[in-house]
Amino acid sequence: MLFSLLSELSAGAAGGPGAPGAPAAGAPGGAASGTPAPVRAPKRPHALREGVARVLFATAAALSIAAVALICLFLLVNGVPAMAKIGLPEFLFGMTWRPANDLFGIFPMIVGSLYVTAGAIVVGVPGGLLTAVYLSRFARGRVGSFLRSGVELLAGIPSVVYGFFGLVVIVPFVRLLGPGTGLSVLAASLILGIMILPTIITVAQSALDAVPARYYEGALALGVDHEHAVFKVVAPAAASGIMAAIVLGLGRAIGETMAVVMVAGNMPIIPDSLLSGVRTMTANIVLEMGYAADLHREALIATGVVLFVFVLLTTMLLSVIRKRGEAR
Amino acid sequence: MSIAFNPRPRRPRFSPVACSPVLGALGAVDLAPSWFAEEDALEVRIARTARHRRAVSALLRWLTYAAAAVTAAVLLFVVGYILVRGVPALSPDLFQWEYTSENVSLLPALASTVIMALLALALAVPVGVGAAIYLVEYARRGSRFVRLVRVTAETLQGIPSIIYGLFGMLFFVTACGWGLSLLSGACTLAIMVLPVIMRTTEEALMAVPDSYREGGFGLGAGRLRTVARCVLPSAVPGILGGVILALGRCVGEVAALLFTAGTVAQIPDFAGQGIFALFDSCRTLAVHMYTLACEGLHVNEAYATSVVLLILVLLLNAAMRVVAQKMEVSKK
Amino acid sequence: MTSFLKELANEMSVTAVAEVPGAAPAPAKMAVEHLNLFYGDFQGLRDVNLTFPENQVTALIGPSGCGKSTLLKTLNRMNDLVEGCRVEGSVLLDGADAYRTLDATDLRRRVGMVFQQPNPFPMSIYDNVAFGPRSHGVRAKADLDVIVEESLRAAAIWDELKDRLKKNALGLSGGQQQRLCIARALAVQPEVLLLDESTSALDPISTAKIEELIGQLKERYTVIMVTHNMLQALRISDKTAFFLLGEVVEAGDTDTIFSAPIDPRTADYVAGRFG
C-alpha cells in the first residue's frame, strides 16, 4: 500500500509537465490514449525501452498498410502495361483467349466467374441461412453442438480436398445428368456452394444471436408463435449481418481457385448451359502462369488485377453494409 | 371447417373519443371505426387464419430442420467419403523419406508443410500481435492511422489466395530474387494470415478488463511492462486461437504457394545446406495433393493424402476446442 | 397518513385519480388458484390465489425479487421461455385454464403485455403496430390503416406520430416508444393488458402520460400492472396485491391496502419502511 503510494508519487513527479526524458513515449500519444487506464508518462529509466517498443509496435501495425500498398503496386505495375498493350476494351471485352495468337480477351472468364459465383450463391445461401436460423433459434442440446462443430470442420477443410471431392463425386454425378464430361458450371457451383456454407452459417448465426431477446419476446407477447417471431422479427432485425454473410460468401466464391480449377472444365468460352465447361479468372491465372512468358504472363497478371477489382468491390460493399448496420 | 372459437361476452364497444378526454377535447374525429365495429368478424378471421398460420409455421420449422439436415449430410458425406476411400489407401510406402515417381511418398510434403507453416507463423505472429498491441494499447482509437490499418487489414482478409500467390511471385520470387523457395512461400503465407492473427489478437486484448491495466499502471509500471505482464498473459488463449486458425490456412493453402514455393517434392535440406535451405523449392501437402489429383495417375495416393489433410484439420479443430475451453475458464 | 399519500399522489400526477366505483364486485376476468412456480429448485411463487376483476386496474407491488413480475409473466405464459421453469396450480382466463386448455399463442394474443424496457421492433412505426394484426391474418391495407390509426389513438400518440408513420420506430423517444408498444399490444385486440413496470424506464412526463392512458384503457381492458412505485399504484389502481418472498401477503381494494392494511408487513411496506 505504502509502496504503491510512493511509486505513484515518484511516477507523478517523473511524468510532470515537461518531463523531458520521454518525448517519444510521452504525453501526446499516452495522454490521448483511448484506454481509460490512468495515463502517466513512463519513468525515466524505461523511457528508451518504452519508446523503442512503441515504435516497433507501430511499425508492425504499419506493415499491413505496406502489404496492401505493395500488393496494389506490384499488381498494377505488372498488369496495367499489358492492358495498355492489348487495349483495355479488347482485354476486358474480347471474346477470344488464345495466347499463341496474341489474343487476350478475358470476357469469357469474367462471365465465367460471375456465373459460377451466382451459382454458388444460389446453392449455398438458402441452405446456409436456414441452417444459421436453425442453429441460432431452433437447435437444442447435442444436435446443435454436433452441427456447430461440423460447420467448424467444414470451414477448416482445405479447398483442394473440396476440389478433389468435386472431381470424384460431383463431376461424375453431373455427367449423369446430360451431355458433356461433367466438368461444368453446375459442378463448380455445387462445390463452391458447399464451400461457402460455413462462412454464411457462422456469420449469419452470430448476427442472429446478437438480436436482443426483447424483440423476440415482444413478438411472442403479441400472440405470435416461435417460427413467425423468428422469421418476421428476429431475422429482419439481423438483416445487415445476414447481408454481410452473403457478401462474404460471394467474396469467397469469386476468389476461390483450386476447387474450381479441378471441376470447371476450364474452356475459355462463355458457357451456354449449366452443363458446359467454364473458366474463371482465378482458374485462368493458375492454369497458365506456370509456363507463361512475356505478354502472356502480363495478361495473366492483368487478369489478377481485374479479379482484385472485383474483390475490392465486394469488400467495399461489405463495409457499406456494416456501416448501415451500425447506424441502425 | 369448424371454427372452434368460444364467443366471449361482448365488451363495451370502444370509442377513442368517449374514453379519452384528451382526444375528445382535441376534437378527434370519431371514425366509427370499422375495425372495432366488426370485432367479431375479426375474431372469426383470427380463428380461421390460426390454422393457416400454424401450417406456415410448421413449414418454416421443417424448412430450417431440412436445411440443417442437408448441411449435416453434406458434411458427413464429404468427410465420410474421403475417409472411406482414403483410409484403405494409406500405406507405409506413402511415409517413405524419399519421393520417387514410382512411390509418390507424402512424407516429404508433410515435413515441408510443417516447416513452411512454422516459418510463416514465425514471421506473422510477432508482426500481427505487435500490430494488435499497438492498435489496442497504444494508439488513440479512431485516429486516422488506426482507421487506415483497420481498413487495410480488412482488405487483406478479403483478398483471395491466388492474388497473394501472384504478388508473392512478383515480389518475393522475382523482385527479391529468392526464386521458387521455402522463404518466398512462407513470406507469402505470412502476409496472408497476418490479418487473421491481428484480428483475433485485437479481440483478445479488448476482452481484457481495464482493471488489469489500471493494476499495472497503479504499481508504477510503464506501458510496455503493463502490457507484457498484466494484459498479454490473459489474452494468450485468444491469440492462440488466432494462431491455430492461421495454421489451418497455411496447411490447406495451394494457390498462394504454386508460384512462390513451387512443387519440388523434397524436404528442404537444412542439414546439408544450413540456412540456405530456405531457398529450396518445396511442396506442401496440399500442393502435393493438387498435383496428384491433376496428374490423375495416383488417385489412391490422392485419397490417402486428403485423409492426412483431413486428420490435420481435425487435430487443429480439437486444439481450437481446447483453447476455447481455456478462454471460457479464464473468463470465469 | 394515507390522505397525505393520496394528496401527494394527486399532486405528482397530471390527471385526476380515476374514480373508483367502490360498490358491486366486478366479475373476475383472470384468476390464479393455488399457483406454485419453480425455477429449478427455487420456488418463485408460493400458493398464490388472486382474482383480477374485469375492467379494473390491479397493481402488484412488493420489493424486488418478491415474485410480482414472475406472476405477471405466468399470466401470459412468457415464463415458458425460461428454462427449468415449472408451474403448478391453475391460471384461468374467463374460466379456461391457460396452461391446459388454451394454446400459448392464443393466450398471448388475448393477454397482451408491455415490458419494462420499451421494445419496438426495428422497423417503421406503422409496421410495428401492424405487425400483430398482420400475423393474425389481417391483410387488406385499408383494414390495417384503420387498426394502426385506432391503436395509436388509443395509446394517445397518434397526433405525435401521424406524420411519420414510415419512420423507424427506434428513432422515437423512450416515452413515445413505450406508448407505441402499448399501441402495438392494443392492435391485436387483447382482453387483458399486462404492464411490467412499464414506466420505470421513463421520465416523469412520459410516465404521467402513460398513467393517464392506463386510466382510460381500463374502460375497455382488464389491466394488471407491476410497479415499484407505490404512489403510482395508489394513483391508478383499483385493486392491489402485496407480494413478499413469493407469497401474496395481502390483496384487496387499493384504498384498503394503503389506508387500513391488515398485515403489519403490508403496513410497513406501504409506509416505506422497507423495500
Describe the structure.
Chain B: Pfam families: BPD_transp_1 (PF00528). Chain B: One of its GO terms (cellular component) is plasma membrane. Chain B: Residues 110-320 form the ABC transmembrane type-1 domain. Chain B: It is found in: Cell membrane. Chain B: This is Phosphate transport system permease protein PstA. The complex is a heterotrimer of chains A (328), B (332) and C (275). By secondary structure, chain A is an all-alpha fold. Chain A has 14 helices and two strands; from the N terminus they run ααααββαααααααααα. Chain A has a two-stranded antiparallel sheet with strand order 1-2. The relative contact order of chain A is 0.12. Chain B is mainly α and 332 residues long. Chain B folds into two domains: 16-78; 94-331, MetI-like fold, CATH 1.10.3720.10. The longest helix of chain B is centred in the first third of the chain and has 48 residues, at 39-86. The radius of gyration of chain B is 31 Å and the shape is globular. Chain B starts with 15 loop residues before the first helix and ends with a helix. Chain C is α/β, with parallel strands linked by helices. Chain C has one domain: Rossmann fold (3-Layer(aba) Sandwich), CATH 3.40.50.300. Chain C has helices spanning 2-12, 68-75, 104-110, 125-135, 141-154, 158-161, 174-186, 204-217, 230-236, 254-259, 264-270, and strands at residues 28-39, 42-53, 57-61, 85-93, 96-97, 111-114, 192-196, 222-226, 239-244, 247-253. The longest helix of chain C has 14 residues, at 141-154. The chains are: A mainly alpha (328), B mainly alpha (332), C alpha/beta (275). The A-C interface holds A 212, 214-215, 217-225, 228, 232-233, 236-237, 328 and C 76, 78, 81, 105-110, 112-113, 115, 117, 119-123, 131-132, 135-136, 168, 170, 181, 184-185, 188.
Major sheet size, sense and barrel closure of chain B: none
Helix % of chain B is over 70%
CATH superfamily of the domain at 106-327 in chain A: MetI-like
Number of strands of chain A: 2
The fraction of residues assigned to DSSP E strands of chain B is under 5%
Order of helices and strands of chain A: HHHHEEHHHHHHHHHH
What is the name of the CATH architecture of the domain at 106-327 in chain A? Orthogonal Bundle
Give the integer mean of the pLDDT values of chain B.
81
Full CATH superfamily name of the largest domain in chain B: MetI-like
Number of domains of chain B: 2
Radius of gyration of chain A: 27 Å
CA-atom Rg of chain B in angstroms: 31 Å
CATH topology of the domain at 106-327 in chain A: MetI-like fold
Largest sheet, strands/sense/barrel of chain A? 2 strands, antiparallel
| CATH class division of the domain at 106-327 in chain A | Mainly Alpha
Intertermini distance of chain A? 47 Å
Gap from first CA to last CA of chain B: 57 Å
The helix fraction of chain A, in percent, is over 70%
The tally of strands of chain B reads: 0
CATH level 3 topology of the largest domain in chain B: MetI-like fold
Oligomer: heterotrimer
